[in-house]
Amino acid sequence: MRTGALLRAALAAISLAASAWAPTAEAQTKPKPAAPAPAKPPQDLVERGKTLFDDQQYEESIQVLSAALLRPSNTKEQKVEIYRLLALDYITLGRTDEAESAVRGLLVIDPEHQIPATESPRFRDFFAQARARWEAEGRPGVVVEKQAPKPVVLRLASPPSSDPDKAIELRGRFEDPESRVTSLRLFFRTGTKGEFTDVEVERTERGFRAQIPAASVRPPIVEYYLVGTDVNGEPIVSRGEASLPLRIAVTEPSKGWVLPVAIGGGILGAAAIVGGLALAGVFKSSSPPSGPGTSIVSVSVAEASR
Fold first, then answer.
1. Which of 250, 272, 292 corresponds to the end of one domain?
2. Given Cys at both, which of 91, 209, 250, 299 links 219, Cβ 3.0 to 4.6 Å?
3. Residue 1 resides in a domain
4. What is the dihedral of CA 269, 274, 276, 279, to 10 degrees?
């Protein structure tokens, strides 16, 4: 009896321990929920438009591709593909005007683009006809990058000053590698006001020469400038300009002065007056006028050197 009671107590203890352990074991063996699969990136608009075209959803393809065309980040290749797919959509729907516009948009970006030989003859024929019309019109829309023209160089030798009433000779070097300058003219005037007179400059083998005529060389200054123009009259090269001309100073002529002296009492009185001058003079007597007792002496006096 006592043994049976002990056995029942042991079984009860084991049952109690098992009930306490069971939740912990279940918690340890329960699998963790799987992580959600990463979201797929949204399909590119160009790829989406192509998929819709392949699925014969042409209107939807046009809408998607038109939206893709507005993206400022499109590469050249992406733009070509967008226009190509739009052209295929429009051709399929029989909208020929829109199809030709799409073909021209493609050709403006890639003038040498060719439709693959594997493409439908319907598409290839339409592209060929649209290209022929576009080229017959001079490839409108294509921007041709022109090389910058070689510069024209004008070197001028000009005197800083000149004597009055003396023609001024101007010479210089002229470099025009592409012969763009068809006319080279000299503009000049006396002083700083008034209209400029212009003359054609004489071209030489290695440069040019021109002359400001003596009649225009007057004190205090002569202003001038040079302009070379092309066949259309557009300025290409210049030295100076109307608002900021080059200048040559014209010297003032030196001026002496003449002192007439009326003398009463003859040559001795004249000698006394002239002797009192602190200037060097040169005397020249004029023929005496009619009437006794009067003589005139002209004294030409130059300024004393300083």
1. 250
2. 250
3. no
4. 180
Q: Please give the span between the terminal C-alpha atoms of the chain, in angstroms, as a whole number.
A: 161
pTM for this structure? 0.42
The pair of structure tokens assigned to 111 is: 């003038």
115 and 158 belong to one structural domain: no
289-305 CB burial, b ≥16 within 10 A, e <16: eeeeeebebebeeeeee
Q: Which residues of the chain have pLDDT under 50?
A: 1, 3, 6, 21-22, 25-26, 39-41, 258-287, 294-306
Domain final residue, candidates 105, 136, 167? 136
Same domain, 246 and 261: no
Q: How far is CA 135 from the centre of its chain?
A: 30
Query: Do both 200 and 263 map to the same domain?
Result: no
Q: What is the span of the domain harbouring residue 119? A: 45-136
Task: Give the pair of three-digit tokens for residue 40.
Answer: 């797929």
